[in-house]
Design a protein that fits this description.
about 180 residues; mainly beta; five-stranded antiparallel beta sheet
C-alpha cells in the first residue's frame, strides 16, 4: 500500500510540470551553409613489394668465386603523394662476424634503382633523388617499384679463418622532396 501511495505522490508532483509545458515557436534563420576544405595528407610509404617488410632480414649470397662479393636484392614498393622522394643511408653499412667483430665484410655498397632503370648509389648523409611513375589518376598517390642492391666483399683471409655467421644493420631514410610552388 505504501508503494502505491509513493507512486501516486510522484505522479502528482509531475502534473504541474506537464500542465505548464508550452510549445515554443522559433523564428529567424533556421539553416546555415557550412563550407570546409579537407586537405589531403602527403603520403610516403615504403614496404616490400607485397606491402609488408623483411621481418627475417635479407640473406646475402656469394654466387661467384671466392673473390666475388656477397649480394642481396630486395624489391621495394614506394607509395608517394608528390611522386618525388630522396633516400640516404643513416650510417655506413657494416657486416661483422657475430663472435669476432674484428672480421668484417669489405667495401659494402648499397644501390637503389627504379624498376627497369639505372641504379644509383646511396650514401651516408647525402640524399639521392628518385621519381615515381605518374599517378593513375587525379587525387591518387603514385606507386613505384624499386630494386635495392646490397653487395660486400668477404673479410680478408682464408675461408677457414673467416667462416661463421655475420650480421649487419642497414638503416636508410626515405623522405619526400619539397618543391617550391
Amino acid at each position: 500500500m505504501k508503494d502505491v501511495l509513493a507512486k501516486c505522490l510522484i505522479v502528482s508532483l509531475m502534473l504541474p510540470v506537464v500542465s505548464f509545458a508550452e510549445t515554443v515557436k522559433l523564428t529567424g534563420k533556421t539553416t546555415s551553409k557550412v563550407t570546409a576544405h579537407v586537405a589531403r595528407p602527403n603520403n610516403l610509404f615504403v614496404t616490400d613489394d607485397k606491402g609488408g617488410w623483411f621481418d627475417q632480414g635479407l640473406q646475402m649470397q656469394q654466387l661467384g668465386g671466392w673473390e666475388t662479393p656477397y649480394e642481396a636484392q630486395a624489391r621495394l614498393k614506394v607509395v608517394s603523394t608528390s611522386g618525388v622522394f630522396q633516400v640516404r643511408l643513416d650510417s655506413p653499412l657494416t657486416i661483422t662476424h657475430q663472435s669476432n667483430p674484428a672480421l668484417a665484410f669489405r667495401t659494402p655498397t648499397v644501390k637503389l634503382a627504379p624498376e627497369g632503370g639505372v641504379s644509383k648509389p646511396l650514401l651516408v648523409g647525402q640524399g639521392t633523388e628518385f621519381q615515381n611513375p605518374a599517378a593513375s589518376g587525379t587525387g591518387n598517390d603514385s606507386v613505384g617499384y624499386y630494386k635495392l642492391d646490397i653487395a660486400a666483399y668477404p673479410p680478408a683471409g682464408d675461408f677457414k679463418s673467416t667462416t661463421g655467421t655475420y650480421k649487419g644493420m642497414l638503416s636508410m631514410t626515405f623522405e619526400p622532396v619539397v618543391k617550391a610552388p
